[in-house]
Amino acid sequence: MSETYPVQGAGLGLRRAFIGSLADDIPPQIDFMEVAPENWIDVGGRLGRQFRKITEQIPMVCHGLSLNIGGQAPLDEPFIHRVKQLLETHDMRIYSEHLSYCADDGHLYDLMPIPFTEEAVHYVAERIQRVQDIIGQRMAMENASYYAVMGKEMEEIDFVNAVLEEADCLFHIDINNIYVNSINHSYDAEAFLKALPGDRIAYAHIAGHYVEAEDLRVDTHGADVIDPVWKLLDVAYEHFGVFPTLLERDFNIPPLETLLKEVETIRHYQIKYETNDKSIKQKQG
User: Fold this and answer.
1) Pick from 2, 56, 60, 1: which is nearest to 31 by CA?
2) Under CATH, which architecture does the 10-284 domain have?
3) How far apart are CA 64 and CA 94, in angstroms?
4) Could you list the pLDDT tens digit for every one of the 285 residues in the chain?
């Protein structure tokens, strides 16, 4: 795995359900952890101390929920400054967000799709650049799941690539979202994956989802990762090389020991390709 990534290995999202045990003993299967800044800004007391204890032991990344990068409302710059402070206080390696919008006159409590248009590319890219100026570093944008297409003028893959290029930001690749969208919008997941800019990948998410119907998957992060999604991760490593990958689980959270088995599966795929890379380099040498 390249040393240019902000973190290395296999990760797990930090949840309050098991923060106490992790503060005392972080399992060796976990190489890095992720938090939503909205959940930890200004948190003090016992939870704040436990959080600080964890961030002092293991590399951390920040994955936001409410930046509203595609929304019409002005960017909440005071909030972005608070995110910057959290990043600096806890030495967070990177800040990522969803390529979507989540607010109008008020918070929508959902991630809504941005129209795939040239106008939206310029609008979103300019807002990403402003966030990067405030936090003083490049951020990463995640390909989002979506269930309706509004005002489409270009394909999703072209929209994502255009935003990343114009904003000159990094890419947070979500493997499950590619799979879910490929079912819901009838496209080839592997072809979509291979058309993404591998040189911009910062790290990845992998998660489970809900099968609503034969042609409808809902991105819930509330179930085990299924075999086709693991296969897509395998394809991604084969095509781009190994990158840091984190398991997301937001509800129906099983015991930590169960989650660690899925984290170990991530590491299994990583070791497979890291071993192959070393063999190739030895033969070339």
Assistant:
1) 60
2) Alpha-Beta Barrel (3.20)
3) 11
4) 556 899 999 999 999 989 999 999 999 999 999 999 999 999 999 999 999 999 999 999 999 998 999 898 999 999 999 999 999 999 999 999 999 877 465 554 567 789 999 999 999 999 999 999 999 999 999 999 988 888 899 999 999 999 999 999 999 999 999 999 999 999 999 999 999 999 999 999 999 987 777 777 778 877 899 999 999 999 999 999 999 999 999 888 999 999 999 999 999 999 999 866 554 444 334
Task: Please list the residues that pair with 211 across neighbouring strands.
Answer: 217
Asked if 223 and 181 touch (Cβ cutoff 8 Å), the reply is no
Q: How far apart are CA 278 and CA 284, in angstroms?
A: 10
Q: Do residues 21 and 251 lie in contact, with contact meaning Cβ atoms separated by under 8 Å?
A: no
Helix or strand run (H / E) with residue 276: helix 256-284
Q: How far is CA 129 from CA 80, 108, 123, 134, 278, in A?
A: 12, 24, 10, 9, 37
Are the beta carbons of 172 and 204 closer than 8 angstroms? yes
For 75, the token pair is 């960017």
Cα–Cα separations (whole angstroms), residue 118 to 51, 150, 162, 240? 41, 13, 9, 27
| Dist. CA 191–CA 36, nearest whole Å | 30
Q: Give the SS3 label for residue 142.
A: strand
Answer whether 0.70 is exceeded by the pTM: yes
Which residue, 75, 65, 69, 73, is CA-closest to 39?
65
Write the CB contacts of 106 (distance below 8 Å, at least 6 apart in sequence). none
What DSSP state is assigned to residue 48?
Answer: H
234 burial (CB, 10 Å; 0-12 / 13-18 / 19+) is middle
